[in-house]
Amino acid sequence: MADGTYPEGLLYHPEHDWCQIDGDVATFGITWFAQDALGEVVFFDPPTVGDTVTKDESYAEVESVKAVSDVIAPLSGEIVEVNEGLADAPETINSDPYGDGWLVKVKLSDTSEVDSLLDQGSYVQGLG
Amino acid sequence: MNEPVDPERQLVDSYASSAYGDPHPSNTHHPGMQTPLQREKVETIFEKGRAGRRAFVCPEPGVPTKPRDELLPAKFQRRNAPKLPQVSEPEIVRHYVRLSKRNFDLDSGFYPLGSCTMKHNPRLHERVTALPGHARLHPLQDPKRAQGALELMHNLEHSLAEVSGLPHVSLQPSAGSHGELAGVLLTRAYHEDRGEVRTKVLTPDTAHGTNPATVTMAGLEVVKVGTNEDGGVDLDDLRAKADTDVACLMLTNPNTLGLFDKNIEEIAKIVHGVGATLYYDGANLNAVMGRTRPGDMGFDIVHFNLHKTFTQPHGGGGPGSGPIAVSDRIEPYLMTPRVVKGADGTFDLDYDKPKTIGRLRGFQGNYGTFVRSYAYIRSLGAAGLQDASEIAVLNANYLLAKLREEGVLDLLPLAYGKLCGHEFVLSGAPMKRELGIRTLDLAKRLLDHGVHPPTVYFPLLVDEALLIEPTETETKETLDAFVDSVVAILREAREDPEIAKSAPYSTPVRRLDEAGAAKRPVIRQPLS
Amino acid sequence: MSRYTAVTPDDLKEMLATIGVASLDELFDALVPEGVRLERGLELPDGMTEQDVYDHLRALAAKNVSAEDEVSFLGAGMYDSYVPALIDMLVTRSEFLTPYTPYQPEISQGGLQVMFEYQTAISELTGLPVSNASVYEGPSALAAAGYLARLANKKGKFVISRAVHPHSRETLRTLAVGYGVEVVEVPLRDGVTDPDAWAAAIDDDTSAVFFQNPNFLGAVEDAEALAGAAKNSPAVVVAQYDPITLGILAAPGEVGVDVAIGEGQQLGNRLDFGGPSFGFFAATEAYLRRMPGRIAGETKDVDGRRGFVLTLQTREQHIRREKATSNICTSQALNALAGVVYLTWLGREGIVELGDLLLQRTAYARETLAAVDGVELLHEQPVIREFAVTVDAPVDAVLERLAAAGINGGYALGRDYEEYENGLLIALTEQRTREQIDALASELGAAVAAERATVGASA
Questions:
Q1: Is residue B170 pLDDT above 70, yes or no?
Q2: Hey, which residues 287-326 in chain C have their CB within 8 Å of chain A?
Q3: Domains, chain A, ordered by start
């Protein structure tokens, strides 16, 4: 993956999602690999604040012109914030997948789930 | 590249070639130069005309009139009249005729769209469809006074039954996917009538998108079945997944890779063995007419695409028609009304079928398409229909062999097998690696050669897929010319891949911003 | 070699050599497994010359009594409207007739712009901002609206007025089996949807409500009230409209309808014994991403030129597959072309004038027929282009007498509404003149009298 970037401080899910933990709140997004496979994102269909998300299950959809992708939750919890800016500029997910392209913030229900996630090295290795 | 070049001449030549389907390599990437169609100002009919202009002349009422408010209470009246255009008839004609010239079409050039069967549309069919006895017949006319229409439908049903090997036909569905929906609902009804509730439908991972969409609409669950290395259904995977919760297996045969499944008899045995039905997506029927029949292969339900195999013109996206043929055990559930022939030889519509699933649309179906397809079947006859399939398969194999001969398959290898049915799939993955251009770029550059590209990126199973179906109505010369175009594009890409990546150059518009259209959809002309 | 193929024996030899097989049979032996080969020819008649096919189709046409052969007051969903000649010319042009769905937009700008203009026209007609590029026809459009509602709110009940076209009701019932939704029918009162029964049927589990305007009996419904009754429920308000009335009838977008659908046949399309025509499908902005069918959108090309593409394709089957908003692939593009050209030909003033014309002639027809002995109005609601009467004689026999006099007297309601045993639905189009209406009245009176006489004679 010559062009992909995968920051070290994040944790990764094999379905190409990242999360950044801050106490009991985590921020989720999709990785460089996922946005590259999709192409230019044209629409992000977000969940609602207050919704429950479950680890390993889909909580939202991301669309490009010719593809739709489920976004998988790396961890379980309750949605506390959704990135509203993506409504007008969904392509931010491509240009800044780990920064302004974040998708949701979640209050975690079971922080022990963190143990099952991959670190940067393992995730990149899995990309092959 | 060193001779003096007249840019305008080249542009005009290349425009002419793409408009009239006579391909020759074009080299029109001159910034600032445009073809007349590219230069044309794009205005919708809503932006043309002027207050007061009109085409329609309203007849005089001819009856004593009353004030509108007396006949239609004011609260039921329209507040703001629709802002339809205000144009004269000559303006309308010019606008739409000019618009038509911004289209490529089958009459104008080669259209090898895989899975679409773009065969010639005979104009005889337009003539007979326009006969007032057919064109001005009301669907609710008393059957006694619609005997010609009912006889035509009856004969068409019989022809489709013979081609498919399944005796009972309904012409009602309006398109292939509508026929698929009928098929899955019929399967549900069949199982429920036997006291069984089955929730799953098996479809191969090469299936057309309409298959899984249809299954969900019918309230069942899609389960994917794998494909083996020969491109057919993976029998082990099928055996593992075929159980008594499976209502149906939906198959296209030949499949979307253009391959006939060698194990079709075994597949039928496995599926019937668990009491499920076998559904045939007839999109690829053009490969096998007169040579094999889905009914004989063991299918229970077949749908036809009259706008593919039976040359109903595609119309830029319809109308089509998706009649179905079914086996004896499915017959009781067929949609009503049914066309029936009495002992006295007269025809009627029968609504009295207690186990029918009901209807999927109004009236009897797209009768205008029946007239065309029926005229086609009567024109060709038994031998002609078989000939159509045979030449379709011949042309596809010839095109494949010619591409192989010219070395094209080194960069775009055949995804499966060596020979093919009426269509074949190439993978552009090696071309992408070696030349740096994708299947999409090859397709866009083909537009400059005055042909419609093949289907791209379908089936999903093949990386950088290019699905090519020439059909039987193309000449050898056309196929040879297509090969020449592909060879030229690949050669050009080897020297300069950027040319294809920015193609097309000579079409009325060049590559369009589809992402922008999806992000900020503008789907109507705004009017103040 | 048949008429449309061109492979000569010489071609065949060269092509087989290139392929590397000895015969066509060898190709098919490789293709089709032995156990399923058809070892005989198809048992169908031999092919015919073009002129013989024409004669055969003409002979079949001659066995039909069409609107060319009789004065027709038959409506009930499709109408003997005048199709202007320029439409014949446009829909048989190669460039509109023969291309496929516009998957390569650069060479499909004609078809895509037509879709965009059609979407604009339907949006204007319905007063709703979002329209697709067509669906098959009226009844299946109504069922598609039901699917939209089901996917949107996942509720378990459809409430539909008995005054909706019988084919629409039946299609909804058939497809609702697949959606897993129960269908509840609301009765009529005085020729329109019973407002109390309607309100009572709507609850928290209602996914969608459906009414028709004007309804199947030709009556104008109180659409605003019917839509309003669903306001405090999750239900999507769906209404089937007669498009030709929308020059003078309050638009669905003006009265609180969420999804407006309808049969487009009389907008520039022939009767064709029931199809092909097109269905229109329009909705509020909220349902944009739930729309079924193709949608054309505006955009620019790399050089900044204005152009059009199929957009929001992620809704559709070829991308979203099992989660698609519908399974539609091929729809009715050529018929929609006829539709937008027709609406353009009618024009801004024409659509209103035509509505007024129908209003006046229908009122005259209704008054004239009500004055005929043995004919009574079935309801007295406002009507625009169609109305219902009851005749004091077996309606089928009356229709036979009218047919013998060269008149199609309309649709016998009894087959679909047992409660209207000798009911007759009479439709007007701009082609039905005063003289023809007077003749209908006269012949109808004579037919009823003759039938009454036979009853008297045999009593």
A1: yes
A2: 289, 313-314, 319-320, 323
A3: 13-127 (2.40.50.100)
